[in-house]
């Protein structure tokens, strides 16, 4: 059974903290993605990676960075968390041409 | 990659009825994918249709693709309460990115 696992289901952090969201996949996929989802705004792409140590900005990269040191792990980093980063964060892997993407269960982050 | 625009934004039907939702996109594609999201969860892949296909079936799902109109539709037949979810399309133009729109929120009333 294929799996994309996000490290936390719910997370509460304080403003200004550095926050790490971890995502691990067991399908040997090259592509991995981070999205955030807010009511009425759909899924917005933050960053994606098409290979180890390769990354590209998505539509809303400001305030975020990513790390992909190993193929199976893609981390999203909030350098200094702010309340407007309170959101649902979704990780996905796969999704190359003619192939489907697999999603993690999501991390609901609240920044207070 | 490009974003698909789903329509309608919300749809409410009675159990047993059919549900149709549409997706429009702007430039040529290699394939188009449909996903479902149950409340508060990750997305689940439903079906992929290639640009040279016009129609595809999977169980109670029927997807059509009209590349001349740059549009796709997802039909769910004989809907069930468990079909209540948000549905997203993702047009793939063979870039690495997968871009999603705001989705269609489907409510199936028992």
Secondary-structure topology with pairs:
The complex is a heterodimer of chains A (112) and B (110).
Chain A lengths: L3 E3 L3 E4 L5 E7 L6 E7 L3 E10 L2 E4 L6 E7 L2 E6 L8 E8 L6 E3 L3 E5 L1
Parallel strand pairs in A: 2-11
Antiparallel strand pairs in A: 1-3, 3-8, 4-5, 4-9, 5-6, 7-8, 9-10, 9-11
Chain B lengths: L4 E3 L2 E5 L4 E6 L6 E7 L5 E8 L4 E4 L2 E6 L4 E6 L8 E8 L11 E6 L1
Parallel strand pairs in B: 2-10
Antiparallel strand pairs in B: 1-3, 3-8, 4-5, 4-9, 6-7, 7-8, 9-10
Describe the protein in words.
Chain A has strands at 4-6, 10-13, 19-25, 32-38, 42-51, 54-57, 64-70, 73-78, 87-94, 101-103, 107-111. In chain A, strand 9 (87-94) and strand 10 form a beta hairpin. In chain A, strands 2, 4, 5, 6, 9, 10 and 11 form a seven-stranded mixed beta sheet that branches. A four-stranded antiparallel beta sheet of chain A has the order 1-3-8-7, with no helix packed on it. Chain A contains no helices and eleven strands. Chain A is an all-beta fold and 112 residues long. In chain B, the strands form two sheets. In chain B, strands 1-3-8-7-6 form a five-stranded antiparallel beta sheet, with no helix packed on it. A five-stranded mixed beta sheet of chain B has the order 2-10-9-4-5, with no helix packed on it. Chain B is globular, with a radius of gyration of 13 Å. The mean pLDDT of chain B is 93. The chains are: A mainly beta (112), B mainly beta (110).
Task: Write a concise synopsis of the structure shown.
The complex is a heterodimer of chains A (112) and B (110). In chain A, 0% of the residues lie in helices and 57% in strands.
């Amino acid at each position: 059974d294929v799996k994309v696992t996000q490290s936390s289901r719910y997370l509460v952090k304080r403003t200004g903290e550095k926050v790490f969201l971890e995502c691990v996949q067991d399908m040997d996929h090259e592509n991995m993605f981070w999205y955030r989802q807010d009511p009425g705004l759909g899924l917005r792409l933050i960053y994606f990676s098409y290979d180890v140590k390769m990354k590209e900005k998505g539509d809303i990269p400001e305030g975020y960075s990513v790390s992909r040191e190993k193929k199976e792990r893609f981390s999203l980093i909030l350098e200094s968390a702010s309340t407007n980063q309170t959101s649902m964060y979704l990780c996905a892997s796969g999704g190359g041409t003619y192939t489907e993407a697999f999603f993690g269960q999501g991390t609901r982050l609240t920044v207070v | 990659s490009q974003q698909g625009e789903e329509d309608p934004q919300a749809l409410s039907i009675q159990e047993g009825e059919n549900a149709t939702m549409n997706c429009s996109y702007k430039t040529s594609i290699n394939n188009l994918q449909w996903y479902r999201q149950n409340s508060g969860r990750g997305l689940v892949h439903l079906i992929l249709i290639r640009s040279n296909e016009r129609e595809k079936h999977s169980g109670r799902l029927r997807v059509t693709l009209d590349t001349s109109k740059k549009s796709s539709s997802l039909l769910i037949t004989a809907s069930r309460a468990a079909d209540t979810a948000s549905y997203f399309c993702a047009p793939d133009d063979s870039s690495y990115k997968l871009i999603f729109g705001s989705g269609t929120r489907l409510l199936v009333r028992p």
